[in-house]
Design goal:
single chain, alpha+beta, 1 helix, about 50% helix
Length: about 100
């Protein structure tokens, strides 16, 4: 899409995606100016079924991503513990 200027303040507008429950996945043009809250929808309304399903799917994705992050942090801590234990074992071996 071409560069579109805001008709109210003249600054450039960018395409963004809404992730609110009512408009999940809808794209809109938003003004980059902090004081200007003008926006224009780029795509048409979604069907009512999509509006019902998308928020639930987004919540599931967010929940799974949080679980993955927790597991990755736990795995990293376990690798650190494993490396530390091997360092202790090696140092004890050479101390004998």
């Amino acid at each position: 899409m071409e560069d579109v200027k805001c008709i109210f303040c003249g600054r450039r507008r960018v395409i963004q995606t809404s992730w609110t429950d009512a408009n999940s996945g809808r794209m809109f043009l938003s003004c980059l100016s902090n004081g200007c809250n003008q926006f224009t929808w780029v795509d048409p309304l979604m069907c009512s079924r999509a509006v019902q399903i998308i928020p639930g799917l987004l919540k599931k994705v967010n929940k799974l991503e949080a679980r993955l992050q927790t597991r990755n942090e736990r795995e990293r801590k376990l690798w650190i513990c494993l490396a530390a234990s091997w360092c202790i074992i090696v140092s004890m071996w050479f101390a004998i």
